[in-house]
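Q: Convert this sequence to C-alpha cells.
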Amino acid sequence: MAGESSSNLSIIVHRNPSESHLSELGIKSWPKWGCSPGKYQLKFDAQETCYLLKGKVKVYLKNSSEMISEFGTGDLVILPKGLSCTWDVSFAVDKHYKFESSS
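A:
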C-alpha cells in the first residue's frame, strides 16, 4: 500500500481535567501561545501537549474536509508527532503548551 497512514495520528482530548492533574503536569510553567480566529496549516514535528485557556478549534487533516477533532476552553489536548493538519479557529486561542523532547 502506498502513502502514509494517519490512523496512528489520533488527537487525544481530555475535557476539563482536574486542577490537581494540571498541577502535576506543571502547566502554569509552560510557555504560552495564542492566535486570532482563522485557518492555520500546522505540522507537528514533535508531540505537543497543550491546555486551552480560551478558544475553540476544529482540526482537519491536511488537504481534507474531514474533521478529526474539536476542542476548546478548558481542554487538555495531546497532538501526535507527524500530524499535518489545518486548525480552523473560530474563537481566539490562548494556550499553554509543551513539546516532548526527542531525546
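Residues 1-6 have pLDDT under 50 and may be disordered.
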